[in-house]
Amino acid sequence: MDNLFSSPALFSFLRFHGYSAIGTIREYRFPKNCPLTNKTIFKKKSRGYFETAVEKIDGLLYLRWMDNAVVTMISSSCGSQNVGQVKRFLQKEKRNVLVPRPRLIAKYNMYMGGTDQMDQNIAYYRIGIRGKK
Predict the structure, then answer these.
(1) What are the helix (H) ranges across 1-133?
(2) Which terminus of the chain has fewer CB atoms gathered within 10 Å of its CB, N or C?
(3) Per the confidence metrics, is the pTM higher than 0.85?
(4) DSSP string computed for 62-131
């Protein structure tokens, strides 16, 4: 799911009815007592660093991962134990490096489509539209 639709209440509802989901989540939709590091502090971490937290009542997993930017996710289906590698380009050193990536992020990217794909394409191919009166 895109972060427009993701919320802990929706994921708890889906889990209660037997469905699993993965999605990005907005900062203000996090539970107040979530032990993940604040986003502004997390930006200073190295690329590939991640933290997880599990809500015991609903069994939801919250994950924060540092890539080019901070990525925050919620899941009711899989964990982040299996860590893979992904190739990223370092601008400062002008070379490719392997960065650790949690399984949750890889699974989300594999099935990403619809709104997320559209947002990604709009960002890549930004068109300036100006109207003339």
Answers:
(1) 8-16, 39-42, 103-110, 115-124
(2) C
(3) no
(4) EEEEESSSEEEEEESS--S-SEEEEEEEETTTTEEEEEEEEHHHHHHHHS--THHHHHHHHHHT------
> If you search the block for the tokens 């599990």, which residue do you land on?
54
The rounded distance, in Å, linking the Cα atoms of 64 and 24 is: 10
pLDDT tens for the chain, 133 residues: list them: 878 888 889 999 998 999 988 988 988 888 888 888 888 888 888 888 888 888 888 888 898 988 888 988 999 887 767 788 888 888 888 889 888 888 888 888 887 766 667 777 777 887 766 666 6
Rounded Cα gap, residues 44 and 70, in angstroms: 10
Structure tokens at 94: 């002008």
Residues 50, 66: contact at Cβ < 8 Å? yes
Give dist(CA 79, CA 72) in Å, integer: 14
